[in-house]
Design brief:
CATH class of the largest domain: Mainly Beta
Oligomer: single chain
Number of strands: 28
Distance between the termini: 35 Å
CATH superfamily of the largest domain: Galactose-binding domain-like
Helix content: under 10%
Structural class: mainly beta
Order of helices and strands: EEEEEEEEEEEEEEEEEEEEEEEEEEEE
Number of domains: 3
Shape: globular
Radius of gyration: 25 Å
Length: 352
C-alpha cells in the first residue's frame, strides 16, 4: 500500500482596524470543525468563510484571510462579522485559525477536509453552443448530428436579469414588448471507458423550466408541461428553485465511449418574466446512497414511491420472493404507484 501525506495548511484571518477600545479578537464561525467538503475531480470548489470580530471599534475593519501565509481572500466587517469566499480550493486537509494580528491568531483551530468524490464530466468552465432571440431550432436540434455551425458559444451561467451571468442571451422581443419563451444549449464532451461509471448526476440550475437530453434521448423535465414542446412553449406552472442547483440522478448507461452530446432547452415562465438562468454540471461516480422505496397508506390504497431526483429507475413487482420474474410497473407518474389495500400481497424493488 502506498500512502500519500498531505501537508496541513495554517489558515487564519487577520483583522486590521484603528480601534482603541480594548483588544480585538476574531474567531471562525464557518466552516465548523470537522467539516468534509466534497469536490469532484475536474470541478472547482469555493468555500464560504465567516469570522466574528469582537471589539471591532468604531472604524472600518477589514479581515484578511491567509492560507499557509498567503492571502486568499479579504472582506470588510459588518455588525461584527466578516464573510467572503475562498475560491478554487485544492484537495487536502486544512487547519483554520482566526486572529487580530498578522502573527497572533487567537481562535481555536478548526480542521476541515476537501475530499475527492466523483469525476466531473461537465464542469463550470464547459463551453456551450446556444440559440436565443426567439429562433426556432427545428425538430432535431437535440440529436448528435444536428447542424450547430451558426450557433454562438459561451460559458455558463447563461441568462439575463439576475446580474450573475457570464453569458447574456438575447431575450427581448421588440415586436410585442415581451420576453422570448425558449433558449437552447448544446455541449459535447468526451468519455473513456463509459461502463466504469456506476452512477451519474446532472446538477441543474434553471429558471424557469428545463428539458435535458443526452445523446438524443430525453432524460428529464423540470417544471415543464407534458407533451410536445416547441420554441413558443412557456414553462410552468411554478418558478421555484431558480437560483440553486438541484440533483437529478440518471442512468449512466446512457453514456457512450467517445463523444457524448448534452442538450438543454430553457423556457421562461411568462412573456413578462424578466429573467432566465441556466447552468449544468455532470458528475459521475459519487459515493451516494441508493434511493429507498417508501410505502404509506392513503385511504384504501397503499402508495409506493421513491425520490423524484432519481431518474432512470423503474419500479418492479413480484408476488413471490426468490424468483427471477419481476414485472415492470408502468404508470403515468414515474415516481409512485398506487395499489389497493385489498389486492393480493406484492413485493416491490427499484431497478435501473
Amino acid at each position: 500500500m502506498v500512502l500519500r501525506t498531505v501537508p496541513l495548511l495554517a489558515f487564519f484571518a487577520v483583522a486590521q482596524t484603528s480601534t482603541v477600545f480594548g483588544q480585538m479578537l476574531a474567531s471562525i464561525v464557518s466552516p465548523t470543525n470537522g467539516t468534509h467538503f466534497q469536490k469532484a475531480v475536474g470541478m472547482e470548489l469555493n468555500i464560504p468563510l465567516q469570522a466574528q470580530v469582537i471589539n471591532p471599534g468604531p472604524g472600518a475593519t477589514t479581515v484578511y484571510f491567509y492560507a499557509n501565509g498567503s492571502i486568499v481572500a479579504s472582506a470588510g466587517s459588518q455588525g461584527g462579522y466578516s464573510s467572503t469566499l475562498w475560491s478554487n480550493v485544492a484537495f487536502g486537509a486544512y487547519t483554520l485559525l482566526a486572529g487580530t494580528g498578522q502573527s497572533s491568531p487567537s481562535s481555536d483551530p478548526v480542521n476541515i477536509y476537501v475530499d475527492p468524490w466523483g469525476v466531473a464530466l461537465v464542469n463550470e468552465n464547459a463551453i456551450w453552443k446556444y440559440l436565443d432571440g426567439g429562433a426556432d431550432p427545428g425538430p432535431h436540434w437535440f440529436l448528435p448530428d444536428a447542424d450547430l455551425s451558426t450557433w454562438p458559444s459561451g460559458l455558463p451561467q447563461f441568462g439575463f436579469g439576475d446580474n450573475d451571468e457570464r453569458t447574456l442571451v438575447n431575450w427581448y422581443n421588440p415586436i410585442d414588448d415581451t420576453v422570448y419563451p425558449a433558449y437552447y444549449f448544446r455541449h459535447a464532451f468526451i468519455v473513456t471507458n463509459a461502463t466504469s461509471y456506476t452512477n451519474l448526476v446532472a446538477r441543474l440550475l434553471r429558471d424557469d423550466g428545463a428539458i435535458v437530453y443526452l445523446n438524443g434521448r430525453e432524460l428529464f423535465r423540470d417544471n415543464m408541461p407534458a407533451g410536445p414542446i416547441n420554441y413558443r412553449t412557456y414553462a410552468g406552472p411554478y418558478g421555484i428553485e431558480e437560483n440553486a442547483f438541484t440533483d437529478h440522478w440518471i442512468d449512466p448507461a446512457g453514456l457512450v465511449d467517445g463523444t457524448n452530446h448534452l442538450a438543454v432547452e430553457i423556457h421562461n415562465l411568462t412573456p413578462q418574466s424578466h429573467d432566465i438562468s441556466f447552468d449544468l454540471r455532470l458528475i459521475a461516480n459519487l459515493p451516494v446512497a441508493l434511493p429507498r422505496v417508501a410505502l404509506f397508506r392513503a385511504g384504501t390504497n397503499v402508495i409506493t414511491a421513491w425520490p423524484q431526483s432519481y431518474l432512470g429507475y423503474h419500479l418492479e413487482t413480484t408476488t413471490t420472493l426468490g424468483t427471477d420474474h419481476w414485472d415492470v410497473i408502468t404508470t403515468p407518474n414515474e415516481f409512485r404507484s398506487t395499489n389497493s389495500i385489498s389486492a393480493p400481497a406484492r413485493f416491490f424493488r427499484l431497478s435501473l
